[in-house]
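Summary for the lay section of the report: proteins are chains of building blocks that fold into shapes. Here we show the chain for FAD-dependent oxidoreductase and then a coded description of the shape we predicted for it.
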Amino acid sequence: MSGETDLIVVGGGPAGVEAALAASERGLSVRLVDEAPQAGGQVYRAPPRAFGAKFQQKADPIGVRLRDRLRASAVQTHFDHSVWSASPGYRIDALGPDGAVSWRARAVIAATGAQERVVPFPGWTLPGVTGLAGATIMLKSQGMLPGAVTLVAGQGPLLLAVAIGILKAGGKLAAVIDLASQADWLADWPAIASQPRLALRGLAWQAILRRAGVPVLYRHAIRSAEAQGDQLLVSVGAVDAEGAPVAGRDRSFVVDALTVGNGLTASTDITRLMRAEHRFDSLRGGWVPQLDTDFRTTLPGLYVAGDGAGIAGAAAAAIDGRLAGLAVAHDLGQCDDAAYQNLIAPLRRSALRARKFGTAMAKLMVLRPAQVAAIADETIVCRCEDVTQGEICTAVREGARGVNQVKAWTRCGMGPCQGRICGDIVGQLVTGQGNAREEAGYFTGRTPFRPLPLDELAPPIAYGDLQLPPPAPL
Ligand SMILES: Cc1cc2nc3c(=O)[nH]c(=O)nc-3n(C[C@H](O)[C@H](O)[C@H](O)COP(=O)(O)OP(=O)(O)OC[C@H]3O[C@@H](n4cnc5c(N)ncnc54)[C@H](O)[C@@H]3O)c2cc1C
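The coded shape description reads as follows.
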């Protein structure tokens, strides 16, 4: 066990870095832990160092500045470390390149971001099908295209970001399949226009797609994908405003790759494991930790900032991270009330503006229940344990009273991803059988929330040294 610090921040995205810097600038000793090789999180993901200078120049300048500021600070950083457990006290356990390590701190900020959601369809587990968010990792961090010709599908801003990323990297697009209508995109235009730089970027992306002659099918979704030699035959059809399939306008595409995503859900491994309270907020990505206005969870000393507190985008994550770092400094006595109020007032105003834009984007990513209701019986929902929609719905009909009972009866959510991929969809399926979403609940947090070799937990054993109890008398 390494020495205690004042604060451990888990997650080195915009929220985590700003939180760590703010707390460190107030004099707290701070550790920042991330499983990625460098800071930046999902949005400012750094290219691998081994890729050379030309590739490095493509890195987002905001991310470059974030990493420079972190390097120049007193924050102790631990990259390539996956946190797999958190316990009261606070103790954080991680697995790094040199094995298992544990740290203690007086306070923890979970800034673990989001994970992507895919509404299952027949064929979504085939090779060549990736998530939209996953495709951003391929493009940004590996400089790779999902395929020579790609179909991009789903909902929300990542749809356009990935389509443009593919074109810029020299790939071809068969089409963009958008669950939303054009009216859905324009519904919150005042909020979108409140961030003119991002709004203009969105309009420029639309223009690039038009110039490249890429068909954009609004109010459409993927029906199925099947392997056709090395390619995929993807069937696409119209949907209504709730996401339910509409008969009559089906089309098919033969492509090398399909990337598809239905928005993001908050990554809540730490707060669920620690049994903090959560609330359901469909607009912010489903179950999110219950927080007060200063980012405190219901457990003293545990805070959450960024998309892990609910989806609001990178700009809001950075400001909220700074606010959470200051809240910890205040609570640990490194910032008196007057100084704290002075520091947070302007940040709170900026956060409101940033969240307005983030909320407009988050609305486009909200799960559409009728799309989930249309998942066919035989479609796999839990891809770790191969559990189908039919098995989940049968368990509910036979009396399973929430997602955790469905998990116990079917093994759904028990695989290596611990339900991160299927959890939100299983919750919606349980709800679709006549239960309130709040009653359906969320998968209880379990450790390890990242896969971990068991021999990392115990020192090497010499069997001869084992103290065996004497045999029981006959
Ligand atoms: C895969 C993916 C790709 C995305 N791509 C984009 C994009 O291209 N453009 C865009 O605008 N938005 C993108 N988003 C949304 C974007 O992540 C957020 O809006 C923004 O980055 C939120 O910042 P954050 O600091 O809250 O979280 P993040 O930036 O997600 O940072 C969270 C960090 O926590 C780390 N982490 C999580 N769990 C653990 C653990 N157990 N142990 C150690 N480290 C951990 C992660 O490695 C990550 O670096 C993406 C989201 C996802 C899930």
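Put simply, here is one thing we learned. Residues 118-262 form a domain with the FAD/NAD(P)-binding domain fold (CATH 3.50.50.60).
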